[in-house]
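Obj.: predict assembly geometry.
Materials: sequence records (below).
Method: joint structure prediction, all chains together.
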Amino acid sequence: MSRWRAVLAALAAVACIAAAAADPAERLPDPAQEARARQLFRQVRCLVCQNESIDDSEAELAADLRRIVREQIAAGRSDREVLAFLTDRYGEFVLFKPSFSLGNAVLWLTPFALLLAGAGVILVMRRRSPASEPLLTPEEEERLSRLANSSPQDRIEEATVPPQGGPTNARDG
Amino acid sequence: MIAELGAFALMLALALSGLQTALSVLAKVRRSASLRGGGEGAAAGAFLAVAVAFSALIYAFVTSDFSVANVAANSHTDKPLLYKVAGAWGSHEGSMLLWCLALTGFGAAVALAGRTLPAGLKALALASQGTLGLLFIGYTAFASNPFQRIADPPVEGRSLNPILQDPFLAIHPPFLYAGYVGFSVVFSFAVAALIEGRIDAAWARWVRPWTLAAWSLLTVGIVLGSFWAYYELGWGGWWFWDPVENASFMPWLVGAALLHSAIVTEKRGALAGWTVFLALAAFTFSMLGAFLVRSGVLTSVHAFAVDPTRGVLLLIILGVAAGAGFALFGWRAPKLPPGGLFAPVSREGALVLNNLFLAAAAATVALGTLYPLIRQAMTGEAISVGAPYFALTFGPLMVACLLLVPAGPLLAWKRGDVHAVVQRLWLAAALALACGALAWMVVHPRRLWAPMGLALGAWLILGALSEVAARVRLGAAPVAESLRRLKGLPRGSWGMTLAHLGLGVFVLGAVFEGSWKVEQVSVLAPGRSLQVGAYTLTLKDVRDVAGPNYEAERGLIAVRSRGGAVSEIAPERRFYPASRQTTSQVAIQRHGISDLYVVLGERRAAAGGGDGWLVRAYWNPWARLIFAGPLLMALGGLVSLSDRRLRLAVGARAARPVLAAGAAE
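Observations (raw structure tokens):
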């Protein structure tokens, strides 16, 4: 379905398509700072594109945002400070990673809560079903009684030839 | 004239779908074979009618009949034939017609192929499928008619977006839609079984082939779209956690869960209620996807959101169909008999865990996709949920799930033996860890997580191979005996092995490409070079070339490998006058499973004066595995589908007793 995404991207701004951040004209001289900037770009949304980070977008606004991030990094701000600066200006919408705030608790906790709830349901269902499996299945019971009532020779044969032509525990797909 | 024929055929299809529902319901009530035959005939007729409508639309596109609004908006006389044809499903209206084609096609397939299904179940399934047909064909005919004429036809059409003019993308929607809509059959079977109140091993056996088919097709469709994004969008990304991609991923995950739970229901009669729930959920997510993509709720400038009432109508259809299905489930499911018992450590137990993780993962994707909407509606604040969120939530869920994959197939039904599993897997685990350690030492730059990811991929692959080895008793029996057993393995088992291998292959590719991709960007004047990975790229020349419906700058770039071998690649930057858009035609040179990926950018002043071009070059190591893996998974699905047992099950009125299955395998 990525085609529709592309339609949008194309409609919103044709220029959105291309990996723009690596443009040599924009790069910071310090490779470590540049690497940090790239890391941050991937977390920041290009506001005029459909769903692209400013790392990917060629739109002018994305270039502006990249310049802001690079300037702040060059000025010695921490990643957190840079992102906070962007959020103050453009709102939380600009972050691809939603903040760990109370408002987003549902978002962050639900996946794991679901997992726990599912595990809980499975446990409860197990409890509710008959306490445990009967020790022997009806076939096994029958086989046992046959063994008990047979001659020693039969017993050996019966015991060595598993029922139904194969081991009961045969794995199958 | 032809467009009117199409519109007429569409109305006919609507009527036939209604007839299919009515006759099938009557057939069930009156237990009449002739009425049932009528319902089946109507199902086949509805498919034929939609096929005629669809052909008419393709004809209108091929002949560039711009008096049809949809053609005028999406086609152009200059377009190559393939893209004229593909234009028929390139728009909202046309793709809805494709959806209807798939829907009625699957209905006809059930009517014709399921000859020996129990009469009642089949009639009810066809009635449900007919109702879905009524809803979607009605929606297409009345709210999204692709045959609408315009009074004042333009001389030339507005053309299809150039980045969509691509062979992979041309065939992407048919696969995707066949997958999406394939789940409708499973949905209908679930509805039928709930009405009948009987869900047993035989039912699961009838549902499995349809699930396998739909899931495999959906897999292929997603891979095609992803591969297209990889080479067309120009920076080698292949998955963006975009809402529209997520829309296709949710039914895929649910379908994967269904594939596994249906096995438990088939072999052991357990989890019947849960399997039915998943059968309903898979198609519900398909419909949710159709709604999300077309309603424009997720994006402010959506191409399909021409008219918001269309989105509302789709939401109503989704509500009616899914609501009815789940209401039926709530009413009937509690009365389902409990299935076979099993110990926590058993094949069933492993499959339950698989389902727990897959279901939680699907819910996570749904939540991440819908949460911005919910939050905005409740508090008015706009937020974004992107890749970092999914990496932190979906990621761990999937890793946990994947870690368990090799163990599942080695556990026995009912009561598994952990000790035996450890015995069969310790070698695979040790080798996988060794692979990770090796990657940690050898691959530079050194990364912490990536080697663990590679170890996970290796674990999946080696685990799948260990399972085959254990099955053929490799080492424990004479070689000839092992070979004989290898030949005797059922296709279903090969299908599983292939699919699990594919998972491992995908993980290897995704981890390696994601961690060790190299990017190099420079402004190059002709004659200058840049270095990416082990290759030196020299821009020789940039020429103007003319395509059928575009003009392009083509860069000739010499590629010299470290060993001295020289080859040439030619990325292009294309301009499409019809839509006034510029796109880049990436040049990809495949080296084994890795790609050298080169993009020609805009013209700029070069450092030493004169003209230069921005050249972006990437070394995408192991990138091909990202696409090969899922294709292997789809192949696994198809191999499984060809298993004689499944075909027999479709044909056999009374499925063989579950007990016998163990010995036969």
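Conclusions so far: The longest strand of chain B covers residues 535-546.
To do: check interface contacts against the pulldown list.
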